[in-house]
């Protein structure tokens, strides 16, 4: 209460009160984005650069009238999806369908043949007895140091109870992408933002194969881990080369990239 009143007073005086430790990065719409990011921060592992950019992308879709749904493949605790929902509530004239694809358990194993040394090292370090054979089974313990894996109930609580997004527009696709994509992708219409955050080669590739063609002209394809995991980069590079996609790959930060579909 006191905090809110003080904020208001400073606001009127033309000053901005921000928590220490969050230095301004100089992005357009940064202050507006940060006010919403505060609400989702406990539910996402994305750094501010990628969240602010995601906010800008939603605002662009809303103001330029880019049609289609928002989709995230790899939601964990739902923070990035919740930011898209909040941005739509703030800036959108109408609700959009939002699709959440996730196993809602620990991540599956990376594949040492394609995912690179960092993924293999992390699977062994964080996954209890974890190996990197590319099997579709949860790497027990992988997210334990981060408060555990995301759950379906936790995501629903965040989106429906805290964000208060209309549940009729929320679609939860629970299971390994390799199983849910062939089943559920055909039921999805146009996509305005496709956010790929499944870390590994196979997780990234299968989503591109099933969802890319649904992204509208002028829509966004966002890749969270391009600079982070070799397998993710390989999946994206292969797909872009197979499909002769020449759209410029924009840099968000060391890891994140996106392109606008031409
Ligand atoms: C890096 S986290 C996502 C982070 C999230 N976007 C955020 O805002 O913090 C990756 C998520 O993808 C899920 N995942 C990765 N590969 C998957 C697959 N093949 N099928 C289903 N879920 C997968 C993991 O279980 C995990 O929840």
Plain-language structure description:
By secondary structure, this protein is of the alpha/beta class. The chain folds into two domains: 41-104 and 150-262, Rossmann fold (3-Layer(aba) Sandwich); 109-147, no CATH class. Helices cover 40% and strands 14% of the residues. It is built from nine helices and seven strands; from the N terminus they run αααβαβααβαβαβαββ. The chain has helices at residues 2-12, 30-40, 48-64, 79-91, 116-126, 152-162, 177-184, 201-211, 230-242; strands at residues 69-73, 98-102, 170-174, 191-196, 215-223, 250-251, 257-260. It has a seven-stranded mixed β-sheet, sandwiched between helices. Helix 4 (79-91) links the parallel strand 1 (69-73) and strand 2 (98-102). Helix 2 (30-40) crosses helix 3 (48-64), helix 2 packs across helix 4 and helix 8 packs parallel to helix 9 (230-242). It is globular and about 60 Å long. The site of S-adenosylmethionine has 22 residues, from helix 4 and helix 7.
Brief characterization of the structure:
This protein has helices at residues 2-12, 30-40, 48-64, 79-91, 116-126, 152-162, 177-184, 201-211, 230-242, and strands at 69-73, 98-102, 170-174, 191-196, 215-223, 250-251, 257-260.
Small molecules held by this entry = S-adenosylmethionine
- Tally of DSSP β-strands: 7
Shape, per Cα inertia axes: globular
Helix content: 40-55%
What value does the Rg take, in angstroms?
A: 18 Å
By CATH reckoning, the class of the largest domain would read: Alpha Beta
| Uncertain ranges | none
Summed over residues and divided by their number, the pLDDT gives a mean of 94
Give the strand order of the largest sheet, numbering strands 1, 2, ... along the chain. Answer: 3-2-1-4-5-7-6
Terminal Cα span: 48 Å
Report the CATH superfamily of the largest domain: Vaccinia Virus protein VP39
């Amino acid at each position: 209460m006191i905090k809110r009143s003080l904020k208001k007073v400073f606001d009127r005086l033309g000053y901005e009160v921000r928590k220490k430790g969050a230095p301004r990065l100089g992005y357009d719409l940064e202050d507006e984005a940060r006010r919403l990011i505060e609400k989702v921060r406990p539910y996402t592992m994305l750094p501010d650069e990628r969240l602010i950019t995601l906010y800008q992308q939603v605002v662009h879709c809303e103001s330029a009238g880019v049609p289609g749904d928002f989709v995230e493949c790899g939601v964990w605790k739902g923070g990035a999806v919740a930011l898209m929902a909040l941005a739509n509530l703030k800036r959108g004239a109408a609700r959009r369908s939002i699709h959440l694809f996730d196993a809602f358990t620990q991540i599956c194993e990376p594949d040492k043949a394609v995912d690179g040394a960092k993924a293999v090292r992390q699977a062994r370090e964080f996954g209890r007895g974890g190996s990197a054979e590319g099997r579709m089974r949860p790497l027990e313990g992988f997210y334990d140091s981060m408060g555990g894996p995301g759950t379906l109930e936790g995501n629903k609580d965040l989106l429906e109870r805290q964000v208060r997004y209309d549940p009729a527009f929320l679609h939860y696709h629970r299971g390994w992408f390799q199983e849910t994509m062939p089943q559920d992708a055909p039921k999805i219409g146009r996509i305005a933002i496709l956010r790929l955050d499944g870390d590994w080669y196979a997780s990234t590739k299968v989503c591109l194969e099933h969802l890319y063609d649904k992204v509208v002209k002028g829509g966004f394809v966002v890749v969270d881990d391009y600079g982070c995991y070799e397998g993710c980069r390989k999946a994206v590079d292969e797909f872009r080369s197979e499909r002769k996609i020449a759209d410029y790959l924009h840099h968000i930060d060391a890891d994140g990239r996106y392109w606008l579909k031409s």
